[in-house]
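Anyone opening a protein record will find just a pair of labelled lines. A complete record is shown below as an example.
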Amino acid sequence: MVELEEAKEEIQEPAVPVEEPVIKEEDEEAKDVEAEENEHTWTEEERAALEEAETLKKKGNEAYLAKNHSVAREFYTSAINTAPEKATEKSVYLANRAAVDLALEDYKSVVEDCTESLKINPKYIKALQRRAAAFEKLEEEEKALEDFQKVCELDAENKQARAQVQRLEPIVEQKREKLKEETIAKFKELGNMVLGKFGLSTDNFQTVKDPETGSYSVNFVQNS
């Protein structure tokens, strides 16, 4: 029986300016990274499969760096399918394929692969960053913010994630307020249909926002 280390290579993330909405994947270099020790005891067959998967991943990295994204994606997919079921290295293969899909602007696939990667390794920062970038492109800024906040929890010194949180917070708050206003407008429209039968309207009801909690209270106002 042979114990293997989870490890090896993954695509590196460059720094992101505050105004940039996504994580750039240009001119990156593949780099060896240390992973947590894999305590699973491997059979010779599993060991060979994992070594083959690592080779496929390296080829994927080379294709990615050459900006041959379709080929890179095929290699990462082969690595995912080749690796043993319990191989935690799959989290890296999935996140790398997500990097390709981010470049190809297939944002739903990015979310799917990063989510699967995070099931294997919930603390995988690159998967969180890539999923956040995809969420924002899908106009799901609140989910993007949650992922960047999680990155900050895992790595308090991550300046890139902090910058994204600061940028996204007012955007998310603005969307929440807009949604509240639209919801209230719809309720008013429905309310006027019902209250009109009784000689009333929603003008008889005043909504007041609590500045501390952001919640609304409704007060009845008698027309003079």
Q: What stands out?
A: The helical segments are 44-65, 69-82, 90-103, 107-120, 125-137, 141-154, 159-195. Residues 159-195 form the longest helix (37 residues). The mean pLDDT is 79.
